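It would be a great kindness if you could assist me with a short task in structural biology. The matter concerns a single protein, recorded as an amino acid sequence and a row of C-alpha cells. The record follows directly beneath this note:
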Amino acid sequence: MNTLKYIFILSLLSISAGAQNQKEKIEQYRIAFITQELNLTTDEAKVFWPVYDKYRAELEAMRKNNKVDIDKLDYAALTDMEAEKKATEIFSLKQAELDLQKKYYAEFKKVIPTRKVLRLIKAEADFRQKLVELLQKRQGPK
C-alpha cells in the first residue's frame, strides 16, 4: 500500500508545470514522505513542522548565500593557493551545515522523541534518493 502512495505522489510530480508549481509538489511530497516515515501523530506534526520549516529555510538560505560551484571551477587554471582557499571554503560551508543540523537536532528532540529525530535523518536521505531516481527516470536512458 505504501508503494502505491509513493507511485501516486511520484506520478503527480511528473506532470509538467511551472518551476514554482513543481517545487511546491516536491515540498508536498517531502511533507507526506517524512510524515509517514516518522509516523508522526497529529499532535507531533503540529509542533514538528514549524521547527522543520524553520530548519529548512535556514539551510536553504545558507546554501544559496554560500554556494561554491565545484563543477564550474577551472582546476587547471587554479594555483595551489587558490585551490587551498576553495577547499577551505567548501569545508567551512560543510561545517556550517553540520553545525545547523546539530542545532536543530536539539530543537527536534524538544518536540518529538529522539528515535524519530534519528529516523528523520534517514528519511531525508531516502527522500533525496527517491527524488534523484525520479529525475533520472524523467531524463530517460543515457
